[in-house]
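Sample 1 of the test manifest.
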Amino acid sequence: DTGTLAYDLPSYLREQGGDKSDCSLRPFPVSFAQLGWDHWIIAPHRYNPRYCKGACPRLLRYDYHAPNHAVVQSFVHQLVDANVPRPSCVPYRYSPISVLMIERDGGILYKEYENMIAESCTCR
Amino acid sequence: NQSPLSPGSLPAIPALPLLQALQLRAPGSQGWRAGSASGHPLRYMLNLYRRAADHEGRPRHGRSLGTNTVRLVQASSHRDQPWAGRWYVQPLTYHLEGQPEAEHLLRATVVYLPSLLLAHSRLLCALELVATGEAPGLLLNPATRPRHGWAEADVTPYLVLGNGSVGSLVLRHVCVRAGRAEGHDAPVALSHPFLLLYLNDTRAGLAPPVAEPRRHRR
């Protein structure tokens, strides 16, 4: 019933303003000592995997790269059955990091692991 | 007090390679510290790392090593040979058994110091491949001959023979002292050559190797 949607547009538009609680990428620098891996990982000293947190807005903006399924699920949650959860805020794009490690036999190992830093978020 | 899960009942989900590495390669943290790797090999790998990645570990674009894994292998401990007059000849064996099958060898080099400045003289060093059943002995030539610092000699052909990779590489580190005698034997053992294996780890979760940047031949 587009009438109600149009009627309710102001609150939708307000929401589109990007509420702080919206799904977004947040920093979380962590050291390998905190992860308990510093006795064998010698570089990098700092690692910021970042994470996605926040509610997925009711009208998923294009820049969320949300699949059609998430758009439908969002409508189902609002218009049909609130027991169906809103889509979740999860990482969309990642980038790798390189790690320098000490091996058990005293060797030294350089490795590039993919998908170690979240670069953007999406709703799914 | 659940009875411990028998391995058979655990879901056979392949752990992430990083977690696998943690489980398989992470030396037990019982008093084990990264400090056990030290000296030239550690400094060399830290420099290699800084060339390849920034301070947050992100691989630098265009400066890639051309692969996702580089392993430094140190020579197994040989008794250090005494000097014979001006000469120093040290046999070195690099054991390669136990390399993970998922790591495919792309290139192998031996890194060593062709010359070492001492107080009253200079050491000139070379690497000799020791003859084995399949390959004759020969003197190794470094790709570049820097006046100072490390040289890398390619040994890839001697690591991959017809029947797959060899189990070890045996070299001789030969040095001669040019100039006046020193009051004591030069500390050559500090700069034992070490082996670098450039590998492509084919397990999921490892960054696919980037095509090696084109090297402009001078």
